[in-house]
UniProtKB/TrEMBL annotation:
Region (Disordered): 312-333
Source species, domain of life: Bacteria
Catalytic activity: gamma-L-glutamyl-L-cysteine + hercynine + O2 = gamma-L-glutamyl-hercynylcysteine S-oxide + H2O
SUPFAM superfamilies found in the cross-reference section: C-type lectin-like, DinB/YfiT-like putative metalloenzymes
Binding locations of gamma-L-glutamyl-L-cysteine: 87-90, 417, 421
Domain Sulfatase-modifying factor enzyme-like: 174-432
Enzyme kind, highest EC tier: oxidoreductase
Pathway as given in its UniProt record: Amino-acid biosynthesis; ergothioneine biosynthesis
Similarity field: Belongs to the EgtB family.
Domain DinB-like residues, every copy: 16-147
Name of protein: Hercynine oxygenase
Length: 440
């Protein structure tokens, strides 16, 4: 790598770290100290925990590991270790106060910037150190999305505002498209910022399948509700029905009935549900019940990725549905530019070669696959990023949402959560096997 290329890499890392920090600050500066230390939902950490955790991970990975510098606050490592304390128990910990947390993350950042300026970027160190920058940027952006989720759980007045996303482009789209059967390359060995579970690239055979052109809309979801979707046990899996009963599920999270219409609380603004928008805040179980009601099923993870990346004209897998270019505002609703998904049928420039829309951005899409490692998986930089979660407890979510930053979203990116979770920005689309029903 030439010195100029090294300088470009350092400049990009510095710029992306700065951009992530502006977002973290915007999410925390709008609230007073009481709102920062309070637990808005037992499913979420106090916002100030996320902020100091971002700083602590940065100290551990960039300042200590990559930079080889002495520890700044090893006394607080334990408090901000996500595996030591459940989210529900974090408010009771002796956490840094908001002022102290802000000061701490700033002090860490100053050291980080020195490391970015001087760390060697040659040979093996290039790959390792460049990845460490990318990992840190993604980590902060992931927690920024987590903090955005916490904002949505707040019960008081709105503090976040953003313009509405674009409308549908007005063309009548086919409901579904046929993705041809055959092999495709899943995962990646070349994306520099890809995390361990996205690697390595490998061939997967996928039989032909139909996939919905757009995510399921609120209007479609209301038809399922009106047709007794939440009352008909036969539409639900056994685990799904048990959870529906235990949690008394009746509608997506944040929906409430007002006479004969449905309202939705969107970051503190309560307004009628918009039928043209993708449904958001549904669990895997609700998505699966809808799919069965529609005579379809959820896509598998391999099907979803093939729909998003496979180019039938070349047989190659691309970085994104629209090609290899980084996401721009014309391609997808990412990066918290908006606080809600765009209408189904928006973003024509983001369509896949087969015309599938909105695979990236808008809403995370539940797929019917458990979290697992690809063949040849090796955990890095530490086992706790994903390997410790492998197994049947977690279902995958793909494609990112309006609150996911482009730095933390790729065609190969894999997210996961418990199938009962719905405080996340989760929606879905359906698939089906040609000629067959839901079980093909
Ligand atoms: C990949 C989104 C499931 O938030 O639990 C953040 C990302 N890992 N800090 C999560 C993560 C460590 C992770 N998800
Ligand atoms: Fe984390």
């Amino acid at each position: 790598m030439t010195t100029t290329e090294q300088e470009q890499l350092r400049a990009k890392a510095a710029a992306e770290l700065e951009r992530a920090r502006l977002r973290s600050a915007a999410l925390t500066d709008v609230l007073d100290d009481d709102e920062l230390v309070r637990q808005h939902s037992p499913l979420m950490s106090p916002l100030i925990w996320d902020l100091a955790h971002i700083g602590n991970q940065e100290e551990l990975w960039l300042v200590r590991d990559v930079g080889g510098l002495p520890a700044m606050r090893s006394d607080i490592d334990e408090l901000y270790d996500a595996f030591k304390h459940s989210r529900a128990s974090r408010p009771a910990l002796p956490l840094l106060k908001p002022g102290e947390a802000r000061q701490y993350v700033e002090q860490v950042r100053r050291k980080t910037m020195d490391v970015v300026d001087r760390v060697p970027l040659q040979g093996r160190r290039l790959v390792e150190n460049a990845f460490a920058f990318g990992m840190l940027v993604q980590h902060e952006q992931q927690h920024d999305e987590t903090m955005l989720i916490t904002h949505q759980t707040r019960k008081s007045t709105a503090v976040l505002h953003a313009p509405d996303p674009p409308k549908a482009d007005g063309n009548v789209l086919p409901q579904e498209v046929l993705v041809p059967g055959g092999p495709f390359t899943m995962g990646t060995s070349t994306e520099p910022w890809a995390l361990d579970n996205e690697r390595p690239a490998h061939q997967v055979h996928v039989d032909a399948f139909f996939i919905d052109t757009t995510p399921i809309s609120c209007g479609q979801y209301r038809e399922f509700m009106a047709d007794g979707g939440y009352e008909r046990a036969e539409l639900w899996s056994e685990a799904g029905w048990a959870h529906r009963n235990k949690a008394n599920l009746r509608a997506p999270l944040y929906w409430r009935k007002d006479g004969d219409r449905w309202l939705r609380d969107c970051f503190g603004v309560v307004a009628p549900v918009r039928d043209a928008e993708p449904v958001v805040h549904v669990s895997f179980h609700e998505a699966q019940a809808y799919a069965r009601w529609a005579g379809k099923r959820l896509p598998t993870e391999a099907e979803w990725e093939k729909a998003a990346r496979f180019d039938p004209s070349t047989g190659r897998s691309r970085r994104f549905p629209w090609g290899d270019d980084d996401p721009g505002p014309e391609h997808a609703n990412l990066g918290q530019r908006h606080l809600r998904p765009a209408e189904v049928g928006a973003y024509p420039a983001g369509a896949s070669p087969l015309g599938v829309r909105q695979l990236i951005g808008d809403v995370w899409e539940w797929v019917d696959t458990d979290l697992h490692g690809y063949p040849g998986f090796t955990a890095f930089p530490y086992q706790e990023y994903s390997e410790v979660f492998f197994g049947p407890d977690y279902k995958m979510l793909r494609g990112g949402c309006f609150g996911t930053d482009a730095a933390a979203c790729r065609g190969t990116f894999r997210n996961w959560d418990y199938p009962i979770r719905r405080q996340i920005f989760s929606g879905f689309r359906c698939a089906r096997t040609p000629g067959g029903g839901e079980l093909g």
